């Protein structure tokens, strides 16, 4: 069973990956894809904030 650190690392990795996909979707003007990714981004961001992760340096989107 994963511990808290492993769970936080997985969430941070997912957060970074989603941001990369959002940047690509925005560049390609894929608005529907961007909005779907944004939903996932906001969920992950909320989880990480509750977990006390400082997002200042890893949040590229700033939404």
How is the secondary structure organized here?
Blueprint: H1 4-27, H2 31-50
Helix pairs in contact: 1-2
Give the overall silhouette: elongated
The biggest beta sheet is recorded as: none
Radius of gyration: 12 Å
Order of helices and strands: HH
Low-confidence stretches: none
Could you tell me the number of beta strands?
Answer: 0
Number of helices: 2
Head-to-tail CA distance between termini? 33 Å
Describe the structure.
The mean pLDDT is 92. This protein starts with a helix and ends in a 13-residue tail after the last helix. Helix content is 70%, strand content 0%. It has 63 residues and is an all-alpha fold. It has 2 helices and no strands.
Keywords:
single chain
Question: What does this entry show, briefly?
Answer:
The protein has 63 residues and is an all-alpha fold. Helices cover 70% and strands 0% of the residues.
């Amino acid at each position: 069973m994963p511990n808290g650190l492993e769970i936080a690392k997985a969430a941070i990795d997912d957060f970074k990956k989603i941001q990369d996909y959002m940047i690509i979707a925005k560049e390609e003007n894929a608005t529907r894809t961007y909005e779907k990714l944004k939903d996932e981004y906001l969920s992950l961001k909320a989880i990480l904030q509750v977990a006390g992760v400082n997002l200042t340096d890893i949040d590229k989107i700033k939404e």
